[in-house]
Amino acid sequence: MAESAKIIVVVPTYNERENLPVLAALLSDLKLPGLQMLVVDDNSPDGTGDVADELAKAAPTEVSVLHRTEKDGLGRAYIAGISRALDENADIVIQMDADLSHPASVIPTMVEILQTTDAAVVIGSRYVEGGEAAAEWAWHRRLLSAFANVYVNTILRLHVKDATAGFKAWKADTLRAIDVSTIQSNGYSFQVEMNYRAVRQGRRIAETPIRFEERTVGASKMSIKVQLESALMPWKLLFKRS
Q1: pTM of the model
Q2: Cβ neighbours of 26 (radius 10 Å)
Q3: 47, 45, 16: which is closest to 37 by C-alpha?
Q4: What is the pLDDT along the chain (242 residues), one digit of tens a residue?
Q5: Can you tell me which family this protein belongs to (predicted)?
Q6: How many Å apart are CA 240 and CA 39, to the nearest integer?
Q7: By the 8 A CB rule, do 33 and 117 touch?
Q8: CA 202 from centre of chain
Q9: CB neighbours of 195 closer than 8 A, spacing ≥ 6?
Q10: d(Cα 15, Cα 211) in Å, to the nearest integer?
Q11: Where are the alpha helices (DSSP H) in 45-73?
Q12: Rg of the chain over all Cα atoms, to the nearest angstrom
C-alpha cells in the first residue's frame, strides 16, 4: 500500500455538536497525508449536521458530510459511511466515535500496521498490554465489558482481546471482501459481526493498545435494546454458520 494512501475516518454522529469540532481539530493536527473525515449525521436535533457542514465548508479537502434522514442505529450509519468511503476509492477506512473516547493520536500507528504487515484490520484495543479502559468507569461497567468480550470469544472463537471495540482501521479490500453492505446487525453487535466475517475469511486482526476515555459531553447511546441485540448476535452468527 502506498504511503500516500487515501484514508477516510468514518464518524457517525447524533447530537455531538460540541464534540465534533474538537475531533476535527485533533484529526487535522495529525498532519497525516491523505486523511479525511466523513461525518455521517442522523439528522441530529441539536444541529450537529449544521456544524459538520460548516467544518466541511472551512476545510473541504479534510471534511465531508453524509446526511441521513433518520436515526436507525450505529450499524446502519457505519454501513452508509463505509459504503461512501469505498465508492470514493479509500485505501483505508477507519471507524471512530465522535464522543472523543477514541484517541486520535493512535491513528498513525494503526495506519502504519496496515501498511507494513499482513493485518487486514487493526483494533484500538483496551485489553491488550498497554491498553486501558476509562478510569471513570464503575466496577460493574468494567465487569460488563470484560464479560462481553469473554462471552463473544467463547461463542465465536475470534481470538481477539477487544472483540466489541468500535475503533478500527480497515484495509478497503477487506471491507469489500466481507461485503459490509449485507451485514444485518445494528448497534454495537455490528462490530462483532464485522470481526467474525473477517476471521471467517482468514483475514488477520491486529490489536494496538489505546486508553479509552469516558465522554465528557453528551449522553451515551447504549440502550437496553442495543445490549440485548449484542447478547443475541453471536448465537445468530453461530447458528447461521451451522
Answers
A1: 0.88
A2: 16
A3: 16
A4: 555 899 999 999 999 999 999 999 999 999 999 999 999 999 999 999 999 999 999 999 999 999 999 888 888 999 999 999 999 999 999 999 999 999 999 999 999 999 999 999 999 999 999 998 776 666 666 777 777 788 887 888 888 999 888 999 999 999 999 999 898 877 678 888 999 999 999 999 999 999 988 655 555 555 545 555 556 666 666 777 54
A5: Belongs to the glycosyltransferase 2 family.
A6: 33
A7: no
A8: 21
A9: 121, 158, 160, 163, 205
A10: 24
A11: 48-58
A12: 17
Distance, CA of 10 to CA of 7 (rounded, Å): 10
Residue found by looking up cell 484514508 in the block? 7
As a whole number of angstroms, the distance between CA 108 and CA 106 comes to 6
Which has the closest alpha carbon to 198: 211, 179, 216?
Answer: 179
Q: What is the number of other CB atoms lying within 10 angstroms of the CB of residue 164?
A: 20
- Report phi then psi at 226, rounded to 5: -65, -45
* Contact between residue 70 and residue 42 where contact means Cβ atoms under 8 Å apart: yes
- How many distinct helices (H) and strands (E) make up the chain? 8, 7
- All residues at 6 or more sequence positions from 234 whose CB lies less than 8 Å from its CB, including other chains: 151, 152, 155, 156, 189, 192
